Amino acid sequence: xxxxxxxxxxxxxxxxxxxxxxxxxxxxxxxxxxxxxxxxxxxxxxxxxxxxxxxxxxxxxxxxxxxxxxxxxxxxxxxxxxxxxxxxxxxxxxxxxxxxxxxxxxxxxxxxxxxxxxxxxxxxxxxxxxxxxxxxxxxxxxxxxxxxxxxxxxxxxxxxxxxxxxxxxxxxxxxxxxxxxxxxxxxxxxxxxxxxxxxxxxxxxxxxxxxxxxxxxxxxxxxxxxxxxxxxxxxxxxxxxxxxxxxxxxxxxxxxxxxxxxxxxxxxxxxxxxxxxxxxxxxxxxxxxxxxxxxxxxxxxxxxxxxxxxxxxxxxxxxxxxxxxxxxxxxxxxxxxxxxxxxxxxxxxxxxxxxxxxxxxxxxxxxxxxxxxxxxxxxxxxxxxxxxxxxxxxxxxxxxxxxxxxxxxxxxxxxxxxxxxxxxxxxxxxxxxxxxxxxxxxxxxxxxxxxxxxxxxxxxxxxxxxxxxxxxxxxxxxxxxxxxxxxxxxxxxxxxxxxxxxxxxxxxxxxxxxxxxxxxxxxxxxxxxxxxxxxxxxxxxxxxxxxxxxxxxxxxxxxxxxxxxxxxxxxxxxxxxxxxxxxxxxxxxxxxxxxxxxxxxxxxxxxxxxxxxxxxxxxxxxxxxxxxxxxxxxxxxxxxxxxxxxxxxxxxxxxxxxxxxxxxxxxxxxxxxxxxxxxxxxxxxxxxxxxxxxxxxxxxxxxxxxxxxxxxxxxxxxxxxxxxxxxxxxxxxxxxxxxxxxxxxxxxxxxxxxxxxxxxxxxxxxxxxxxxxxxxxxxxxxxxxxxxxxxxxxxxxxxxxxxxxxxxxxxxxxxxxxxxxxxxxxxxxxxxxxxxxxxxxxxxxxxxxxxxxxxxxxxxxxxxxxxxxxxxxxxxxxxxxxxxxxxxxxxxxxxxxxxxxxxxxxxxxxxxxxxxxxxxxxxxxxxxxxxxxxxxxxxxxxxxxxxxxxxxxxxxxxxxxxxxxxxxxxxxxxxxxxxxxxxxxxxxxxxxxxxxxxxxxxxxxxxxxxxxxxxxxxxxxxxxxxxxxxxxxxxxxxxxxxxxxxxxxxxxxxxxxxxxxxxxxxxxxxxxxxxxxxxxxxxxxxxxxxxxxxxxxxxxxxxxxxxxxxxxxxxxxxxxxxxxxxxxxxxxxxxxxxxxxxxxxxxxxxxxxxxxxxxxxxxxxxxxxxxxxxxxxxxxxxxxxxxxxxxxxxxxxxxxxxxxxxxxxxxxxxxxxxxxxxxxx
Length: 1225
Fold this sequence. Notes:
Helix content: 25-40%
Shape: elongated
Low-confidence stretches: 1125-1129, 1209-1225
Number of strands: 43
Distance between the termini: 36 Å
Mean pLDDT: 85
Oligomer: single chain
Strand content: 15-25%
CATH superfamily of the domain at 352-527 and 535-602: Nonribosomal peptide synthetase, condensation domain
Strand order of the largest sheet: 8-9-10-5-15
Radius of gyration: 37 Å
């Protein structure tokens, strides 16, 4: 059985059989009908003596003939009965190209499909005045059944299209209005929204006949001689009298390389825009390469044409040229109506009851739909949409193409719906979203009289697809098919009206409702044929991306292909190629197992897996010494007189520290401490603390460092949680809240040279660090000796030296102290204790680092952000400056580097559960604006996996949860086996029995260069007004304000429970205007970010509240007051400008009052009214407000501020040069 397309645009199933040819097609079909659904039944049955084979012995599908008329499967012919059935049969015959139709014949069995179904419904509406739902055609496909459906169908309520009164102003269609508005917003869209085509002509070209044919087409179609004027704030169509096309004849035959010169002209043509106000909007160039070689380039503005129009143009050009070249008259029938008649009809129809029902459908369908498809981008989204684009190609092999088409037939859905379902499943995997809105174009020619017209009819249908229930592919197919049918049944409503009805959040950075389009070539295939000429397509290298992604599929019987157009401002070409590779892989997997959940198929192929294995190939031999203290003792024997610890004026040499810690170990053992116990330290950073931690390890126990500055109740809670066997405390500061033995560090100074520590395995616990838990109770992370040794010895991210001096600057209860203490002590270096008062002042810290010859300094990202300016002059004196604990701040990095390249600045990543960090990267230069700084590659004996919800490894570019495996893992959470099992899971990629990996809860992805990116917490991504956003992007934009040094953005709930964005800023130069008027910072951001990313409140801080670990104390951030919010419950317009604006708003929107914080678009405004608003502002207030600024400042108060900053109006039109395009083709 083959899917053939013998007539372009009309695929059908054909069965080829070898056997008893006496069995007719009708009998075969009747037998199959008892076992298969209607849509799976072949349309024709061809008997053969043998099936043709290739030279390799395989079936030669291309050698199978097209079916003859007698091969069509029809039941015993029963003629139509009655007038209605006979008329319907005539419509079928015309559309399907068959001679006769019986009353028991099926529309699909005779070659029908969904596109022809839409055209049939259009013919029924036009001829019979009956509105047949598309779903009825699928449910009752036989002629007699469909006639019965027509008997019960309602009469069409759509008024007939009649010629419009040409003496009155002619309105634009709704689709034209949107393109006209975009042209007002940015006149450069004259080159963006173009329909271009080129053809290479070889042979004897009759230029006068070609010119006459083009001129006749211009005369036939008013759209090709239409331009647009602004009259009384409203656009109207102006139709010029018939005129000759502006066909430019250019002779390139004398050029050294005519082909190269032709390509230059083609590029110039593609980049030359149209003037909508003056026209013409259709032009051509005929390039002469040689006597019998020409290139014809034709361009039309999208406002007067669409994809279907190209087919009409081709068909008419072929017919007219053929006639004119032989001096025959015009063979084309006159057009009954023109596009202007359709536009006028559309405005009359808008008030129709059917239109109201369709509005309600779309409101319900898109209620609370996501505002943005959050695909991870290679570059940050520009605040103004950039339409530069490029294409990548997709070709599915013949085997997969046939399997997919067979699957579609088997389950009674269209191949388009199947491919769309697969695309939705892929986008869900990339974005992490399960609620998607994908646009698909509809021809918009739902009436037969519109089919022969050139004009802008194409409409966009936003399809909402829900994958939240983890559907199987079959379930998703059924959902998508139902969604498609419902959308097609409500496709009469223009997309512009849907936008007005749904009122999505407006943004200049992307198109509303949907940012990705999915289409297949539904235009009837028409090839240009001209006598005595050989024609071939001329390539077009100019690509415009009107959406983030647009996938256009070409479906043939044995081959499915596609073109993915993408916005180059957002994505790299390699990323888009990966999308298509993964799409093909996903389709193949789902075709193999359609009952599998769509999020289950693994997308990582063998090459991708090898790349991940290479990036994770970090295994190295483990040092023979199994514990921290035995490694230290070996170092002490090697360098006994080297300085181990510097604490103010006091120093401890290695032999002294070894003996000191021996005494502590002995006293702990005497106090009852045994192997595996926990011992709490209540000591500040000091030499005593270092000795205490080393002594606890020698006693076989694990140290539990607590911050002495924390409340006693907190100390008691944690000591009880770890069941502390003993507590080491500062002199004279024994805790009263415990009955455990307490060891005063001041009473342990008598050294002990001879001590034999109890033997311990490498997996024995070394320390317990407490982190906050989601339940409010702290979690004790139990870290083994081997994890610490792996972090600090023989690593790939740094090489320690015996003369290294590490600053001990971290809170001992924070895991960065691990590297600060043990890296130097196990490599012969020195620990330099940093006093608390030094840490409080970045200048003092910088001086301290230079005075003490610090070579390694570790600061969490939050502190580094604050101290960057002062540390910039210290960076060259350091061997390593290591940061982590949070995402790196590009501005802080830029400040540190000062425009110079460096190799000693390390960005690290890793949670406490994986022993400080597991990845590292040297940040040698400032990243491009908005670029994420990667977290690097895995360190020695650690592996990082990006996994989906089913713990399957994901390919490059696809976001998932970061999982960590290897020697750095903690043993788990102290006495919390359930929590441990939840977060420390079996490692499916390891051959080692019992191997585990840690689920971080962080989102990340691999880059093509083998670097990892962290994309934030899975549970921390914010959703505001339907948009998912990362606060870090807003913070980076805030820090570009000259008065802002640091910024933080949080999502907070106000008293009404509404989620609001709040910005907190610090700046030494912030003046009163920025401190007291939130509009100052808001206006700054409005030039850089889409409006949904603008914070609702701005709070100026003197300093960040920090926890004892040096991390931001989020709970201590103050709530904004009303002044900082810039809002109030009831706030009428203030001042002359606001009051004047309010009057203009009320007049335009037909309302009586306006609040100064009302949003123009939320209370009824739309794009066309925005143009009128700008015009009236200029007329009344004498100020020009660019449309881009109006969109960026849509509230009354903010618009008034923008007006104050605007310049006095000139006579120029309301337009501004911004890169803006969010129209849906």
